Amino acid sequence: MEQSYKTPHVYSVDGNPSFSQYPIRPSCPVLVPTLKKQNTDRIKACVILILILALIILVLLACGIFFIFNLRSQIEKITQKQIKEAEGQHAKFTGHKQPIKPSENIREAAHLTGKSSAANTLLWDDTKDIAFTRGVRYKDGGLIINETGLFFIYSKIYFRNLICVKDLELEQTLFVRTSRYPKDMILMETKKNKYCVVKDTVWYINSYQAGIFKLHNGDHIYVNVSNTNLVSFDQTKTFFGLYKL
Ligand SMILES: *[C@@H]1O[C@H](CO)[C@@H](O)[C@H](O)[C@H]1NC(C)=O
Ligand SMILES: *[C@@H]1O[C@H](CO)[C@@H](O)[C@H](O)[C@H]1NC(C)=O
């Protein structure tokens, strides 16, 4: 009952047919196109603005990147300079500028073989067969040192005889003759005794000595032997040599 009452009430209000053609309605279609045009213009403006902003941001970014790179290279330059300065100071402090390169000089060495003797001093072959000298000179039984340093020196003397002379002492002495000292300086000395017991029998004995010594430029090294007549001058049995450490 209430619904049926309400509906006629509404119709009674809009009962006038002139109401359906209200004058406000026609004005709307005129307004819509201008609004649309304005909207597209605004969108265009917005897009342009955004593009300009994006461009500005890109330019700023590029500037920033350039600035950072510049700063980095400058920092690197400064660090390298500081490192160089620190190295320089370190070198000054420690006393050497650059790492010491290994010497490219040829190491002095020599192997001399038995040849003969002059009085008690043995004479040697320095070029024959296995004999050689490198960086040192041989002259009149002596090896002449060319460069100061540590040297390993060795000498082997082969004594032999057909008869045994009892209690005959066999001696070899390795010595240096130098301008720094008035007398011969003995470096090594070897004595052999009781190498034979029975009279009139063949005997042989090796006398070997070796050591490390500091030698100076210009030093002469010789080997003296007590009984040169008992020395075998076979190149593989009696020899004398050295090499620089
Ligand atoms: C070595 O022998 C020579 C003779 O040939 C002699 O003049 C010299 O004093 C000797 N030196 C040593 C250290 O025995
Ligand atoms: C001795 O050393 C010098 C350089 O110090 C060199 O020129 C010379 O050839 C050397 N002598 C020998 C015999 O090797």
Record keyword descriptors for this entry.
245 residues, disordered N terminus, alpha+beta, Jelly Rolls, 2 helices, binds 2-acetamido-2-deoxy-beta-D-glucopyranose, 6-stranded antiparallel β-sheet
Would you mind describing this structure in some detail?
- With 245 residues, this protein is of the alpha+beta class.
- Among the domains are: 44-73; 109-244, Sandwich (Jelly Rolls), CATH 2.60.120.40.
- It is built from two helices and eleven strands.
- The protein has helices at 2-13, 24-94, and strands at 109-118, 121-125, 132-134, 137-139, 142-144, 149-161, 170-177, 185-192, 203-215, 220-225, 239-244.
- Strands 1, 2, 3, 6, 9 and 11 form a six-stranded antiparallel beta sheet that branches.
- Strand 7 and strand 8 (185-192) form a beta hairpin.
- The protein starts with a helix and ends with a strand.
- The relative contact order is 0.14.
- One 2-acetamido-2-deoxy-beta-D-glucopyranose binds next to loops.
- Residues 119-121, 173, 175, 184, 186, 224 line the site of one 2-acetamido-2-deoxy-beta-D-glucopyranose.
- Residues 108-245 form the THD domain.
- It is found in: Cell membrane; Cytoplasmic vesicle lumen; Lysosome lumen; Membrane.
